[in-house]
Write a structure and sequence with these properties.
Layout (H helix, E strand, L loop, with lengths): L5 E5 L5 E12 L2 E7 L8 E9 L2 E6 L3 H14 L10
Amino acid sequence: MPENGKIVLTADDGSEEAFFVVEKTDIAGGSYLLVSDSLEDGADAFILKEMEEGDLVTYETLEDEKELKIISKYFEELLEEEVELRLE
């Protein structure tokens, strides 16, 4: 992870978007990133799941509701009272 905690992700269409990495965890054989578009209170956050295809590593937005609830709860516990995650 970069020193400033900011990563740039490239979408399939070639567009790029920068995110701040709030936390990273490995759980149940999967690697997950909690990222945010800002470090301000009330910022949008996303949980990304690491996907490996040979030497290529990609990140996909976590969309499975059951998995999303489990991983978001885990991130809340990791970060204690620093953040409150709301699923929308």
